[in-house]
Design a protein that fits this description.
CATH topology: TIM Barrel
Helix content: 40-55%
Structural class: alpha/beta
CATH architecture: Alpha-Beta Barrel
CATH superfamily: NADP-dependent oxidoreductase domain
Bound molecules: NADP nicotinamide-adenine-dinucleotide phosphate
CATH class: Alpha Beta
Radius of gyration: 18 Å
Number of helices: 11
Distance between the termini: 41 Å
Length: 295
């Protein structure tokens, strides 16, 4: 079986931790379906699983990792702390609760899910838990450039090692990614298939490239990101699609393909504009709703 931690299939974070380039995402997988989906993903060869307390399936992800029979060190597991648990004391508490819920002794990566609220206090807690070895790497998600750089410069050490953001052919964020790379922050893509928005799997440019290589459009999109050393998360509850997506790592796009796909960038998000004033209100609302159920 492919070694998902070898040079072709993994990146090395600023602190030396290896992270598989393609991960299995668990957003919108129902709790009752999660254990089997993660077991299927691990069986077909994924070694990187992404969840979050706000996905309501951390326990099932942990159960699958434990039931898989794989050595713990062979699976890279990420979770995320939601805004209502930001702040030094709350974040420390919920990281331990997450470990207990997942039945794991450590996490490979813990992220702050959003750049709202007391993320400074929360990140300080992650830094301490990192130093204690409970978290092997720490980072953020949805931090747009100004806030990412602020945390890097003013947020003590270690700096975030990963920033998980919306990235797909229609929203490529070249400047934001360059800033991450310059500051040794690993870019990580969520919704690489744009959750199928804008009929992305029938895009004519992507379809032509897929035909040229005898691949599917999903494989072309995923390889576009991983070939540029962007860690990429993709979700599917269908085993045959899990295999299809994983096999995207085994071919290469050429320079013309990369140029043609780069030209598809529309320069604006398909989901939330985290840098906007409206987003503050929107996420304040999400947080008010979620905090009722998360605790
Ligand atoms: N940090 C954040 O704020 C954030 C936000 C969103 C997502 N994420 C993470 O990123 C992961 C991936 O993003 P996502 O789940 O939102 O979207 P995505 O992976 O872009 O798209 C998932 C959708 O694509 C379908 N699909 C997957 N592979 C396919 C294939 N080969 N052919 C056709 N359809 C296919 C899936 O359907 P089926 O399941 O029916 O196959 C599902 O409807 C998440 O699961 C989560 O871990 C993080």
């Amino acid at each position: 079986m492919t070694d998902m931690f070898d040079e072709r299939h993994a990146v090395v974070l600023a602190n030396g931790v290896k992270m598989p380039l393609l991960g299995f995402g668990c957003y919108q997988i129902q709790p009752e379906q999660t254990k089997q989906s993660v077991l299927d993903a691990l069986e077909v060869g994924y070694r990187h699983i992404d969840t979050a307390e706000a996905y309501f399936n951390e326990a099932e992800v942990g159960a699958a990792v434990r039931a898989s029979g794989l050595p713990r060190a062979d699976v890279f597991v990420t979770s995320k702390v939601w805004i209502c648990h930001f702040g030094y004391d709350e974040t420390k508490r919920v990281v331990y609760r997450c470990l207990e819920r997942m039945g794991l002794d450590y996490l490979d990566l813990m992220l702050l899910h959003q750049g709202f609220g007391d993320y400074y206090g929360a990140f300080k807690a992650l830094q301490e838990l990192y130093r204690e070895g409970v978290l092997k790497a720490i980072g953020v998600s949805n931090f747009f450039p100004r806030f990412l750089l602020d945390l890097i410069k003013f947020g003590a050490e270690p700096a975030p090692m990963v920033n998980q953001v919306e990235l797909h052919p229609y929203f490529q964020q070249p400047q934001a990614r360059a800033l991450m790379v310059q500051n040794k922050v690993q870019p990580e893509a969520w919704a690489p298939l744009a959750e199928l928005k804008n009929d992305i799997l029938h895009d004519p440019v992507l379809t032509a490239i897929a035909h040229k290589h005898g691949k599917t459009v999903a494989q072309v999109i995923l390889r576009f990101l991983t070939q540029q050393q962007v860690v990429t998360l993709v979700k599917s509850v269908h085993k045959e699609r899990m295999v299809e997506n994983l096999q995207s790592l085994e071919f290469d796009l050429d320079a013309d393909d990369l140029k043609d796909i780069a030209a598809l960038d529309q320069g604006k998000p398909l989901f939330f504009d985290h840098s906007s004033v409206e987003a503050v209100d929107q996420f304040y609302g999400f947080n008010e709703n979620l905090k009722q159920v998360l605790d």
